[in-house]
Amino acid sequence: MRSRKYLLIIVTLNFFIVLSCKSQVANKYSITDYSDVDNWSIIPDSITKEIDLFFVHPTTYGPPANGNYIADLKDNKLNKKTDLYSINRITSAFSEYCNIYAPRYQQMNIEVLSMPEDKINNYLKIPVSDVKAALDYYLDNHNDGRPFIIAGHSQGSNVLQVLLLNNNEMFDKEKIVAAYLPGWTFTDEVIKKTGFELATSPSQTGCIIVWNTIGPSGKSPTLKYGARCVNPLTWTTDQSTYTSSLNIGAQILFTDLEDVRIDNFTSAKINEYGGLEIPIPDYDILSRLKMPMGPDCFHPYDYDFFFYNIAENVGVRCKEYLKNKNRP
User: Fold this and answer.
1) Where are the alpha helices (DSSP H) in the chain?
2) C-beta of residue 19 within 8 angstroms of C-beta of residue 25
3) What is the reported pTM?
4) Which of 2, 77, 163, 224 could disulfide-link to 185, CB 3.0 to 4.6 Å?
5) Which 3 state secondary structure label does DSSP give 180?
6) pLDDT tens for residues 27-54?
7) Which residues in the chain show pLDDT less than 70?
């Protein structure tokens, strides 16, 4: 009888320890104050475009985490790296047509992805809370009724997916030009729950645009069962192979930090798993790529490899949205 009592006590203590650990992770971090301009990577001094971009950057933190699984926004070295090699480069594809808003946020270290799902979800609450606060602040203080694009990559797309699912009221369907969210899985079920549609044409507005770039035998931790894909060479969802002649140009940041444009860089097709499959680049290019997720996983280059197609398409969708908005 006594042993049963001890067992019950141990089980009860373990239960409360688990709850306490989860609570400590969620409560350890305060939501970032977005009235402080230092908590924005980019915020415009003046409004020069009719459409805004709200951009959430990909993971730029770690490894190693050394036990600190959430980035410190006072880490100036990390902020500089994030601005220079991620935010500034990606948002430049939108800058011709959009006023850029890009918050800093308490991102998860990439090591979190190797944790059990319950721990991942617990840490994910922190960047989600930050980006929700940033979007709230943008809508209340900066948007002034303008239409806007939402865009992200990797962790940024994941965070925006969570907000689209759980805080859908923040995304006025009459004002959303498009959502560019590569580097994460969106299934038909998820897309339906967001209230938006998957893009199937280059000029479609109010739609979700997603892809995950891999090689012929590639696997990606961001490409999961049921993933949908839009081919950025055509902005359609059919599974035909489209040649590199449709690739206006890549803008690739190599490991030696040389930033190079390569026209007609790659062909691409949507494969049976919903991945955007490309042929393996020539060795002189492949040897200069950063491939942290394994061979044939081109996740870090989802924007790079199709950069000028994206820039062109942003213009197409913005013009179509404004044309329809101004139509009598």
Assistant:
1) 2-28, 76-82, 88-91, 117-141, 155-166, 188-194, 283-286, 307-325
2) no
3) 0.90
4) 224
5) strand
6) 678 999 999 999 999 999 999 999 999 9
7) 1-27, 327-328
